[in-house]
Amino acid sequence: MKRTFAILLTLITFLSFSQENEKDWNLYKEVNGIKINYKYQECHDVHNGIHQELVLFQFVNKTENDIKIDFDFSLIYSNTKSLISKTSEQRKQILIKKLSTYESSCFENREYTIFSKFLNYTDKSELQKFDLKNIKINPTKL
User: Fold this and answer.
1) Sign of CA dihedral 32, 89, 112, 100
2) pTM given for the model
3) Burial status of residue 79 (CB atoms within 10 A of its CB: 0-12, 13-18, 19 or more)
4) E strand or H helix that includes residue 98
5) Contact 87, 75 (CB under 8 A)
6) Which of 6, 10, 50, 106 could cross-link with 45 by S-S, CB 3.0 to 4.6 Å?
7) Which one-letter DSSP state was computed for residue 10?
8) Residues whose CB falls within 8 Å of the CB of residue 85, separated by 6 or more in sequence, listed in order
9) How far is CA 72 from CA 12, 51, 131, in A?
């Protein structure tokens, strides 16, 4: 009985995650046959009381080559007193097969998302601006 309850609780927790207010992808930049799109997405983890907005990314490889994309996130957050500027210390890297798409989401590939704001707090920092810096696209073998 306890095992069934634990499985049921796990399933309910998983299903309680929701994605709302889905918007179409916006073109951020196109470089050498690679489209980089983004969108703001509400992500809700009802079980843990986490309600946040993330910036999700979609990388579309329109070339006939497998590629490696390297970049840094540059982020500017505001709080009630000042602006905070952050550049990620860790360089991001994505490997994408030819003619394919790689997407981040509320649940997968979270290392390629940006936290925008909490939806259930008004006194916390919010993302004011983001930029992908030092974008390098190179053919690779996967």
Assistant:
1) positive
2) 0.77
3) exposed
4) none
5) yes
6) 50
7) H
8) 74, 75, 76, 77
9) 36, 26, 8
Distance CA 82, CA 100 (A): 41
User: 108: Cβ–Cβ under 8 A, 6 or more apart, which residues?
Assistant: none
Q: Which of 69, 76, 65 is nearest to 134 (CA)?
A: 69
Q: How far apart are CA 137 and CA 22, in angstroms?
A: 28
d(CA 42, CA 119): 8
Q: Using the Cα atoms of residue 30, residue 33, residue 34 and residue 37 in order, give the sign of their dihedral.
A: positive
End-to-end CA distance of the chain: 46
In order of their start, the domains of the chain are: 19-139 (2.60.40)
Using one digit for the tens of pLDDT, what is the confidence trace for 73-129?
888 888 755 556 666 567 899 999 999 999 999 989 989 999 999 999 888 889 999
